[in-house]
Amino acid sequence: MEKLQTAATVLIVPGLRDHVAEHWQTLLQARLAKVRAVPPLTTDTLSCTARVEAIERELAAIDGPVILVAHSAGVLMVVHWAARYQRPIKGALLAAPPDLQSDWPQGYPSPDSLRAHGWAPLPGGPLPFPSLLAASSNDHLASPAAVAGMAAQWGSELVELGAVGHLNPASGYGPWPHAEALIRQLDY
């Protein structure tokens, strides 16, 4: 299989579930020629600060342009990282961000727990790089209105994906071919 060539290095920023073999980000990583991923944390796994520092460590190891590809809580990590650090980023694909103001199903950390670990409040204002915010119409972690509000606040272009759940294996994803097209759009 020929790998997708990009001018920029793609940095994969997973959500709180970290590495999942059948997740679209893991499958995407295998398809890209220039790619790195933020490794799973072994301690302080709910700490927003620890997650942001992990992103910064990976970025420090990359020379040249970077495209960020974040999913779920990884999107929130990127927003916090952008508020704390200065580094040119070519663009970001931000997929299925959770809404810290809503109640989540059992099996997820509670929004209150995440707030206690530094996730809220989210930094305000536009991101300092172009971004595409991909939203599902039936995501159990964020309503379409909440995601549209995030896109407006961050200056992101909203990409409506339809009914794709949380865009994870539990929602039937697996491969997400649309991600490659969105990365190409950012890798101009």
Automatic annotation (TrEMBL):
Entry keyword annotation includes Transferase: no
Organism encoding this protein: Pseudomonas capeferrum
Highest rank taxon of the organism: Bacteria
Record key words, sorted: Hydrolase
Pfam family, one: Ser_hydrolase
GO molecular function, one term: hydrolase activity
UniProt-recorded name of the protein: Alpha/beta hydrolase
